[in-house]
Design goal:
The protein has about 425 residues and is mainly β. It has three helices and 27 strands. This is DUF4861 domain-containing protein.
Amino acid sequence: MKRFCCIKKWGHLLALGLICFASCKTMQKPVLELENPVGTERQDELIVLSRQSLAKKLGNIPSGKFVQLNADGQPILIQYDDMDGDGNWDEMAFLYSFLPSQKKSFQLQLSDAPAAIKAVVRANARHRRKNADNSFGPDLAADSIPAGQPATDFSKQPLPPFLTEGPAWENDKVGFRLYFDVRNGKDIWGKTTADMVLDTVGMSPASNYHQQAGWGMDVLKVGPSLGAGALALYVPGMNGKDSLVRVGGRHIEKVSYKKVVDGPVRAIINLTYHNWKIAENMPPLQLTETISIWGGQYFYESTVIIRGAPADAKLVTGVVNLHHAEQQNFESGGVKGLYTWHNQSENKDNLGMAILAASSVVEKFSDASGVHSDIKNSYLAVMNTNASSPVGFRFFAGWEKSSPMFKSAEGFRNFLEHQANLYQHPILIR
């Protein structure tokens, strides 16, 4: 009898233990696991999680609710992005630095508000129009220009119609801008500060942004080239000639700009080219470029969707070559790169520029000398187009005043090879 009571007692305790274990287990917060698959450090990796994927772990995420992340008991700064404009966030983005081959766990929890963390802004996009009194108006969420929008003639007017001639995007390392006119070129802001500065640079003609200041300077002369990753379309045999046609220009209905998201972690803009007619005997094309930039990196990322292009047409981007810099090409695993490094900045010092893209996307690297075009002085990355999926690339700018690693050709090459390794081995999300 005593033995039976003893067994009954221990069975009761075991049952209580199992209940406690199950209860404690259900009370544990869901966990997100990230892994660095390469044996090198990664600084400021961008991690983007969709609301849909998070709902698989957390269940339905009601409108007005947020998902917070904690690592080692510390909250992570999250940017919640409404990508489709419906008033609810669709993606959450954050930056995290990883040790070699590191696996890291983050606790997830639903909350009524984002974590209370003072945010340092590390990415920014802006576009401002000039007022009649030569001041500049507020930052615009959307804007458009008609076909043939003329380039500014600074001999006749001291300020352009748009602040620094068009949309600009920056992070804490580097900045870029688009000429929002028939040139449709891209330029580089070399930065020596982590502060966001492009909301105010160029406000007054008394301050010349082509000369080095405390924040940095415009380091690139673009001319008739593709500059810092501007776009074109290569069309073999068009009107009897192999042609390279600049995106935009005069033969287009309009170009529209839209700010999608803006800091503190990342900034994204869309540029849409409506009814672009590359030749009289061809139907118009539709092209959208999405440009993203985030903190801690020396590049912007571009994804391009083209609809209605001729079957044999190729998307082209490029790097300016006005200083006889030698074109360098390399392939690392599944990534191909084109780059130059030379004493080629407007400050007469060293500047490296590069394009990295997946090897499956790049058909070849070449230059603009052998094709019919108004595009000159450019090294080209010729890429396969696919109407069903975007074509992507990253454009890098390494000015020696921004970092000592860009002072030598070897330093820039080593940097690019490291970036290529990271590009083809993204962070694994469990």
